[in-house]
Amino acid sequence: MSQDSGLRNTSIVGLQWGDEGKGKFVDVLAAEHDVVVRFNGGANAGHTIVVEGERLAMHLMPSAVLNPNCELVIANGTVIDPEILVAEIDMVESRGLKLNGRLHLSSRAHVVLPWHALLDGAAEARLSNLGDAIGTTKRGIGPAYADKIGRSMAVRLGDLLDTAYLKAHLNKITPLRQEELRIAGNNETVGADDIANRLIALGERLKPFITDTTWLLHDRVREGRSILFEGANACLLDVDHGTYPFVTSSNSSALGISPGTGLPAKSLGKVVGVMKAYSTRVGGGPFPTELSDAIGDRIRERGREYGTTTGRPRRCGWIDLVAVRYAAMVCGVDALAITLLDVLSGFDELQICTAYQTPSGETIRRFPVDARDLEHCVPVYETHPGWVEEIDGCEKLSELPNACRSYLEILQNHLDLPVEFVSIGPDRKQTIRLTPSSACMNEACCTQA
Ligand code: IMP
Fold first, then answer.
1. What is the pLDDT of residues 88-126, one digit of tens each?
2. Alpha carbons 227 and 254: distance in angstroms, whole number
3. Is residue 69 exposed (0-12), middle (13-18) or buried (19+ Cβ within 10 Å)?
4. What is the CA(281)–ligand 1 centre distance, in A?
C-alpha cells in the first residue's frame, strides 16, 4: 500500500475562468518536486512559458517540461489529441531535451479523434444560431469526454498499440459517426482505414511513453517522491462546480485530481490557487465584472489578453472576489498566487467586487454558480486607489508602491488566505515569493520582503 500523506505534494489550480498563469507557477515550483502531473483537460488548455525571453506555447505537455529533473505524467483524466502531442514532443526534443524515460502517458487517457473536433464545431454552429454558443475552443474536448462517459464509441491511448482491436473497433463505430456528422450538418467523409492507419503510426511514436500511470504514481509515492499536480482550465470552468453550461467537460478544479490520477484525495498536499489581479473569460457565459469599455480594452492590451489556443481576444474586467472566494472554497486552497499585477499600473482607481446585488435588491456574498442566476447579478464594488509606477522590475514586496501592497492586502483579507506568490511579469524571475513572516502587506512591518 502506498502511504502518501501528501505532505510533500503541491496542487496548482486556477481560481477563475482559466488563463491565470498557472504554467508559470508549475515551472517555478517544478524545481522543488520530482514529478509533475496533468490530470484533466486536453489541448483546450494553453500555457506559455517564458525562459530568457523565449516564449514556448504548449497545450498538452506539462508546463515543467523545461526542467530536466522532473518526470512528467499526463494522467488518465486527460483527453489526448495524439497529433498535437506528437508535435509537442518533437518540438521539445528538437531543443535537445530528451523525453524517453521522463514522459509518461496514461494508457487510459482518452483519445481525441478527428471527428470530435468536427462534432464540436457542428454543435457550436447550431448553438450559435440559437444565440447559446458556449464558445468552445473547438478542439473536440466535449465530444471526446462525452464518448468517455458513453463508453461504446471511445478510443483510449492504450488502444493505439492494439492494432487488430483498433481497426475492428473503428470499422464498427465509423459508420455511426458518419451518420451523426451528417445529421449535425457536416458532410465530411471520415474513413475508418485512414483514421486507423494514422492512429497506428502515432501510436508507434508514442509507444515508449504509454504506461499505466496509476501504478507509476503509486510507485513514486512509495519511493518518497514529491508530486506537483498541474490543473488545466480552472475551477469556474469545472463541469460539476463551474458556471454550467458555460464550462469545459472535465473536473478542472482541485476536485479532479484524485479521479484524474488514481491517487487518493489525501495526496493533494498544499493547494495553491492561482488568480489574476483582475478577471478574464474567453467564450460565452456570465461575467458580472466584465468591462466593455476603454478600461477593459486597456487591461486586454497591457495584459496581452488573447487566447493561447485560439487567439481570441479575452473578455476583461475587475477582480471578482465573490467568484474567487467560492473557487478557493471548492478547491480547498491553502495559499494564493496573484498574477499579472503589473497590468494594473497606471489606473487612477481600481474596483474590487466584494458582493453582488440580485434583481430583487438583495446583496449576496455567496457565488450563485448557476449561469442563469449569475447572469442577473450586478457587482458591488469597493473603490481602491491605483498606482502609477511600473512594477515589473520590483524584486521585493517592499519595492511595490503602497497602493499596490494595500491592494494585495485587501485580496488577502477578503479571501482569508495568505498570498504566497506575486507575479509581476511573464518571466520566471519576475516572481516575488512571500514567506509567512513577510506575508503582511503593511509597509511598516515588511522589512524583509
Ligand atoms: P472547451 O473546453 O473547448 O469545450 O471549451 C469550453 C469553455 O471553456 C469555453 O468557454 C472555452 O473558452 C473555455 N476554456 C477551455 N479551456 C480553457 C482554458 O484553458 N482557458 C480559458 N478558457 C478555457
1. 999 889 888 899 999 999 999 999 999 999 999 999 999
2. 14
3. exposed
4. 9
CB count in 10 Å sphere of residue 215: 11
DSSP secondary structure letter of residue 85: H
323 vs 24, 89, 256, CA distance in Å?
22, 36, 19
59 is catalytic: no
The amino acid that residue 376 corresponds to is H
| Residue having the nearest C-alpha atom to atom 1 of ligand 1 | 136
At which residue does the C-alpha cell 513514486 appear?
A: 220
- What are the C-alpha distances in Å from 351 to residues 119, 317, 344? 41, 9, 11
Q: Residue 403: is it exposed, middle or buried by C-beta count within 10 angstroms (0-12/13-18/19+)?
A: middle
Contact between 77 and 40 (Cβ < 8 Å):
yes
47 part of the active site: yes
**Residue of 295, 424, 399 whose CA lies nearest to 347:** 295
Q: How confident is the model at residue 55 (pLDDT cuts 50, 70, 90)?
A: confident
> pTM above the 0.85 mark?
yes
449/439 Cα distance (integer angstroms): 8
Helix (H, G, I), strand (E, B) or coil at 338: strand
Q: What domains, with CATH codes, occur in the chain?
A: 10-106+212-448 (3.90.170.10), 110-208 (1.10.300.10)
Q: Which three cell numbers stand for residue 141?
A: 474536448
pLDDT in tens, 141-153: 999 999 999 999 9
Give the distance (Å) from ligand 1 centre to CA of residue 15: 14
Q: Which of 4, 27, 33, 47 is catalytic?
A: 47
Integer Cα distance of 310 and 209 in angstroms: 28
Per-residue cell: 135: 464558445
Neighbouring residues of 393: CB distance < 8 A, sequence distance ≥ 6: none
**Set of cell numbers at residue 412:** 488577502
| In contact, 48 and 303? CB cutoff 8 Å | no
